[in-house]
From TrEMBL:
It is found in: Cell membrane. PANTHER family: ABC TRANSPORTER PERMEASE PROTEIN MG189-RELATED-RELATED (PTHR43744), ABC TRANSPORTER PERMEASE PROTEIN YESQ-RELATED (PTHR43744:SF6). This is Oligogalacturonide transport system permease protein. GO terms for biological process: transmembrane transport. The keyword Cell membrane applies.
């Protein structure tokens, strides 16, 4: 009797397993299809931008697809020259001169301030940290006019200093908060061992804490790099000389409102403008994701 029941049970179990596998494959297929469709919708503007940069100005309006019929790099050649005495190489160099000090200053200052908040007790610490968090809720436009008046009185207008100094003094509260959260997830054992061996607070920060903060610091640098690369309002307010314009303002120069302008030049230079941020992000995305995910864990 048992010999006749077991095969039936086994066949039913196999049928049930096969049904579950089919259902899992169908669910996975639907899930991947939806994700691919949403991803394509999000990437299509970027794909179209790249394809349109190889079109002529007339084809951009006659051919809505992203594949050019007769690809040409004339937009890149003409757009690189610009309508000013300077080429886009000068504007990329200006962008580098703005971004490099901002990234370095942000990494150093935010690390020092975050280390103080996370590891030391001092009078007014809670009030100062609450004030720091409160500034995250303050819109940037609220501080634009006071900052402009301050930098005008100091004599820093039409220079890179208004863009450098706030970052060098930990003016970006988001990065300080992010590093504080990351530091709270790091055990203090190694720091205490370093102090037992005679290391002071500065040596402990440099040789023990900073190596452990590497993923978070890479995330901070990536954020600052991308935000500074895309910053338009800051340079527009403080910089007035064309020879000091970054790429974001140089793209605006390509749009002449008094006459018809060549969209293929603007799109071609837009592709070049977003390329550094994309390259840097994909090269460091492993550390970027690790820094973001680790920063959200509180020890």
């Amino acid at each position: 009797m048992t010999q006749t029941i077991h095969p039936e049970i086994e066949s039913k179990a196999r049928a049930q397993q096969a049904k579950l596998r089919r259902r899992a494959r169908i669910n996975a297929l639907i899930r991947y299809f939806v994700l691919s469709a949403v991803g394509l919708m999000m990437l299509y503007p970027l794909i179209w931008l790249i394809g349109a940069s190889f079109k002529t100005n007339s084809e951009i309006f006659t051919n809505p697809g992203f594949l050019p019929k007769n690809p040409t790099i004339q937009g890149y050649i003409d757009g690189w020259k610009t309508s000013t005495p300077y080429t886009f190489a000068r504007f990329f160099w200006n962008t580098f001169l703005i971004i490099a000090p901002k990234v370095i200053g942000t990494a150093i200052s935010a690390t020092a301030v975050a280390y103080g908040f996370a590891r030391f007790e001092f009078p007014g610490k809670k009030i100062l940290f609450a004030t720091l968090i409160a500034t995250l809720l303050l819109p940037n436009v609220v501080t634009r006019i006071p900052q402009y008046l301050l930098f005008r009185d100091i004599g820093w207008l039409d220079s890179f200093l208004p863009l450098w100094v706030p970052s060098a003094l930990a003016g970006d509260a988001f990065f300080v908060f992010m590093l504080v959260q990351f530091l709270r997830a790091i055990p203090r054992d190694m720091e205490e061992a370093a102090r037992v061996d005679g290391a002071n607070s500065f040596q402990t920060l440099i040789f023990i804490v900073v190596p452990l903060l590497t993923p978070a610091l890479i995330s901070v640098c990536l954020f600052q790099f991308m935000w500074s690369m895309n910053d338009f309002l800051g340079p527009l307010i403080y910089i007035s000389s064309v020879e000091k314009y970054p790429v974001s303002l140089a793209l605006k120069l390509s749009i002449d409102t008094t006459e018809a302008f060549e969209w293929n030049r603007i799109l071609a230079m837009s592709v070049l403008a977003i390329t550094p941020a994309l390259v840097v992000f994909f090269m460091a995305q492993k550390y970027f994701i690790e820094g973001i995910s680790s920063g959200g864990v509180k020890g």
